Amino acid sequence: MVATDIGIDLGTASILVYIKGKGVVLKEPSVVAFDRDNNRIKAIGEEARLMIGRTPGNIVAVRPLRQGVISDYTVTEKMLKHFIQKALGKRMFKKPRISVCVPSGVTEVEKKAVEDATYQAGAREVAIIEEPIAAAIGAGIDITRPCGNMIVDIGGGTTDIAVISLGGIVVSTSIKTAGDDFDDAIVRYMRKKHNLLIGERTAEEIKIKIGCAFKRQEVQELQVRGRNLVSGLPRTITVTSDETEEALRTETAQVVEAIHSVLEKTPPELAADIADRGIVLTGGGSLLQGLEDLIEDKIGINTMTAEDPMTAVAIGTGKFIEFLSGDRSE
User: Fold this and answer.
1) What are the CA-CA distances from residue 157 to residues 2, 82, 180, 182, 257 (Å)?
2) What is the CATH number of domain 143-177+249-305?
3) Positive or negative CA dihedral for 11, 214, 251, 51?
4) Cα distances (angstroms) measured from residue 128 to each of 8, 133, 234, 267, 326
5) What does the alpha-carbon distance between residue 50 and residue 16 come to, in Å, rounded to a whole number?
6) Domain-by-domain residue ranges, the chain?
7) Which helix (H) or strand (E) holds 131?
8) What is Dmax (Cα atoms) for the chain?
9) pLDDT of 107-164, one tens digit each?
10) Fewest CB atoms less than 10 Å from the CB: which of 136, 150, 157, 273?
11) What residues contact residue 13 under an 8 Å CB cut-off, 6+ apart?
12) Helix and strand tally (H, E) in the chain?
């Protein structure tokens, strides 16, 4: 009887589960809806995400992970258990070996919380892997070579930037500016500029459809509905992609600044490798249009996005446990 190896990308915005030999089998938002009256969980994942901002008083839709760190231990444990069982189906004979990734800046206490929650959710063995390493493996980079690679993983709650060589992190930083902050910036901008109050789901929709970090040649528009703060009534306005660039300017500048500070601390030989090989972007936040152009423009180094940035960390986490268990034949 073969035990299953599982890789989990425990993200602030979504959770991805990778099973050895099958690839990414599950991708769901890391949202849990529970009833306050009896403390029972009503929904987990996509079903719970649809409830955000639309629940009656007794039901709350929460994200148990904030900025890549467990903020609600009990809910996280239940959510993990649910997703592991959903990914494996009913055929759980032997407890699986699970590798979970965490942001590079987490403390030992935060790491321990993730480890404990994973054991409680039914793991036989747990390996904790740092996000940039998982992202690099998932992006198809051979991290074992003595050569500098720069990975920028922009998730929902944190952006992890690291220079990797010989299978380890040489220089890294983790900033709390990422996809969720992009959404918040759009909410603030709409309130300030248009007197329009929108929810986080609408902000995310604007970011995905017309959001950009660098001015586009063709301006795109989107009809947005919200509540007028002056009259208190629902109102529809047209938002342009140029406005999203303005709204996101502070947040994208922080990401560029963090990349710059990591490069400043990088040993010269590795910095030369990065100038030669370029910067690789992974994570859902890297899908923001124009981000590559903005980094190239400000840093002056060729920047590219991994083939499938959303699943790179999950794939890398799964492959890492294979690497640990000695399955180096792959």
Assistant:
1) 35, 22, 6, 10, 17
2) 3.30.420.40
3) negative
4) 10, 11, 47, 27, 16
5) 18
6) 5-134+312-324, 143-177+249-305, 179-247
7) helix 131-138
8) 66
9) 898 889 889 988 988 888 899 998 899 999 999 998 888 999 999 999 888 899 999 9
10) 273
11) 29, 30, 63, 155, 156, 157, 179, 180, 284
12) 10, 18
Q: What is the mean pLDDT of residues 86-93?
A: 73
DSSP 287: G
Nearest residue to 53 via CA among 202, 233, 237, 236? 202
Global model pTM greater than 0.90: no
Domains 5-134+312-324 and 143-177+249-305 share a fold: yes
E-state strands within the chain:
5-10, 14-19, 23-29, 32-35, 40-44, 59-62, 65-66, 69-70, 97-102, 125-130, 149-154, 159-165, 168-175, 196-197, 221-228, 234-240, 279-282, 303-305
- Kindly state the tokens that stand for 85: 């069982």
Q: What CATH number does the domain located at 5-134+312-324 have?
A: 3.30.420.40
Of 3.90.640.10, 3.40.630.10, 1.25.40.10, 3.40.50.720, which CATH number belongs to 179-247?
3.90.640.10
Average pLDDT over residues 179-207: 94
Beta carbons within 10 angstroms of residue 77's beta carbon: 20
Cβ pair 16, 9 in contact under 8 A: yes
Is residue 235 helix, strand or coil? strand
Q: Residues 36-54: pLDDT tens digits? A: 888 888 899 888 888 877 7
pLDDT tens, 214-270? Answer: 988 889 999 999 999 999 999 999 999 999 999 999 999 999 999 999 999 999 999
* CB neighbour list of residue 146: distance below 8 Å, 6 or more residues apart: 165, 166
Q: Is 17 left (phi over 0), alpha (psi -120 to 50) or beta?
A: beta
Q: Is the pLDDT score of 67 beyond 80?
A: no
